[in-house]
Amino acid sequence: MNIPNTLTVLRIILVPVIVIFLMQGAFMKALILIVISGVTDGLDGFLARVLDQKTLLGAYLDPIADKALLMSCFVTLSVKQIIPGWLTVIVISRDCIILVGISVLAIMSAPLEIRPSLMSKITTVLQLVTVFAVLLFKAVALPFPRDGVVWTLFLATAVFTAASGLDYIFRGIRLMNRAV
Length: 180
Hints:
This protein is an all-alpha fold. 81% of the residues lie in helices and 0% in strands.
């Protein structure tokens, strides 16, 4: 284990703690841990490049940490009726499509390189910003707007998440066609 992978494992360990805080309504504590997760996410990638410590384990763990955090936050905030259920369904459906696609490609022994597309990176940022914005409103006890900026963020997140899912589907189909 190197420093970048240790930071990624720390992010994974923080997920259940964040969910517990969300369930308890301790939004400020959850927000602080999400900020820490975001900082360590950027730091692990930076250190992996600078220290030349990129590993196959890190390539697998980093997206797992992102997915675990985001899916857990979206589900919990949706159950608490803070984030709309339809948005959570879109986020989780995309991640399930990606996991099924990777599984099918692995079964087919298709060459698989784990590299997120630009669309996927934008999607992840939008999903994180969405969770951050919602928690910020809740943590500082601001009235939660049911229109305007937050709903625009919900819609942008939904559109990019769906587009990213379609992008992965098309990329997966191309890989499958090459493998056959």
